[in-house]
Amino acid sequence: MKICQGDKVVLEGVDFHVDESEFIYIIGKVGSGKSSLLKSTYAELDIEEGEQAEVLGRDMMTLRRKEVPMLRREMGIIFQDFQLLADKTVWDNLNFVLTATGWKDKQERRQRIEEVLESVGMGEMARKFPHELSGGEQQRIAIARAILNQPKLIIADEPTGNLDPETADKIIQLLKHISQTGTPVVMSTHNMPLLDKYPGIVYRCEDGHIKEVTEEFNNNDNE
């Protein structure tokens, strides 16, 4: 499988798969293809060629543009810069997503928002605006938004990149818990200490290729 950005080949010979409950790290230097790999899973970047490229039962080689929104509804996507709507409260941010994805019953939306806010420890923050929250709190809201529709897969692109170490630690604990409930999490990161503290499957992007290096980290743990 080959992933391109414009005319540039970012990754080729990609052999990568995700199973239920897995917690997967994508590591590598800046520009090595980590974000490109994640973007290809939610059809932000096209996959140019390959024998098989399937995401949540869809053939990414033949996926049409009009089918992309339905694919993304089955995913939770978390970004480094949170991407919350600045002019809306936490509640309205989450309500906006539910309304846009077909939740017509107001009471059901209310109940679901309360559930996800409690699950990320932010039940008291519903009426706050994003600028009134810390970076860690905003990322918790971003995670709440990502799990609203009970996704089959969580994609997290450097979710701790703008956070201090203690806050980053709490965010990973939260994502790890989500994976343990059955929803796989695929996360790119530069924060290498996390790999030791919260073990998972590790893939490295390097020199235009990606390979699994989980054993490399396990061996380090055993030394």
Structure report:
With 223 residues, the chain is α/β, with parallel strands linked by helices. It has helices at 34-41, 68-73, 90-100, 106-119, 135-147, 165-180, 193-197, 214-222; strands spanning 2-5, 8-11, 23-27, 47-49, 54-55, 58-59, 75-78, 153-157, 185-188, 201-206, 209-212. It has a six-stranded mixed sheet with strand order 7-8-9-3-10-11, sandwiched between helices. Strands 2-1-4 form a three-stranded antiparallel sheet, covered by helices on one side. Strand 5 and strand 6 form a beta hairpin. Helices cover 37% and strands 19% of the residues. It has a domain at 2-74 and 151-222: Rossmann fold, CATH 3.40.50. The two termini are 35 Å apart.
SSE layout and pairings?
Layout: E1 2-5, E2 8-11, E3 23-27, H1 34-41, E4 47-49, E5 54-55, E6 58-59, H2 68-73, E7 75-78, H3 90-100, H4 106-119, H5 135-147, E8 153-157, H6 165-180, E9 185-188, H7 193-197, E10 201-206, E11 209-212, H8 214-222
Helix pairs in contact: 4-5, 5-6
